[in-house]
Amino acid sequence: MAWLSCPYLGGDVEWTEEREQHVAEQHPDLLPAHRDKVAQTLLDPDGIRHSARFGSARLFSRWYADVRDGKHVVVVVVSGPSDDARHWVITAYISRRLSRGDVEWSRS
User: Fold this and answer.
1) Could you tell me the pLDDT band of residue 53, with boundaries at 50, 70 and 90?
2) Which residues contact 28 (CB under 8 A, 6 or more apart)?
3) How far does the chain reach from its first CA to its final CA, in angstroms?
4) Contact at 8 Å (CB) between 45 and 60?
5) pLDDT value at residue 83
6) Going by C-beta distance under 8 Å and a sequence separation of 6 or more, which residues neighbour residue 104?
7) Which pLDDT belongs to residue 11?
8) Fewer CB within 10 Å, N or C, the chain?
9) How far apart are alpha carbons 93 and 31 in whole angstroms?
10) Measured between alpha carbons, how far is 76 from 58 in angstroms, rounded to an integer?
11) What secondary structure letter does DSSP report for 35?
């Protein structure tokens, strides 16, 4: 298990081996080549959206010019019900554009 720093959430996000394996199998364009981008996206995102599919999930995104000729890395994090709750990665993927979910925060 890895702990990824996320200042926006005020702590660390849990990334289990099982979830990392899921990402590697379902999104081989992201892992293992861009593993560092997952951590960087949580550390310094360009934007954060509420998930349209899962009420307790947020989509952290960051644009990278060096990922597949320019794409977003999206990391989906679920949080427990309280402010000091546990946070964990459920998936991560590469996307050419962001369209779902309400914007919670955006870099100015």
Assistant:
1) confident
2) none
3) 33
4) yes
5) 67
6) 48, 49, 50, 58
7) 93
8) C
9) 9
10) 6
11) H
Cis bond before residue 45 (omega within 30° of 0): no
Q: Does the predicted model carry a pTM greater than 0.70?
A: yes
Q: Tell me the C-alpha distance between 14 and 4, whole Å.
A: 6
Q: Is 51 left (phi over 0), alpha (psi -120 to 50) or beta?
A: beta
The DSSP 8-state label assigned to residue 65 in this structure reads T
Tokens of 12: 């660390």
- The three-class DSSP label of residue 7 is helix
The angle formed by the CA atoms of residues 67, 99 and 68, to the nearest 5 degrees, is 10
Closest by alpha carbon to 11, among 88, 91, 104? 88
Greatest Cα pair distance in the chain = 39
Helices (H), the chain: 17-26, 35-43
Backbone angles phi, psi at 53, to 5 degrees: -95, -35
The residue count for the chain: 108
What is the C-alpha R_g of the chain? 13
Domain residue spans in the chain? 2-100
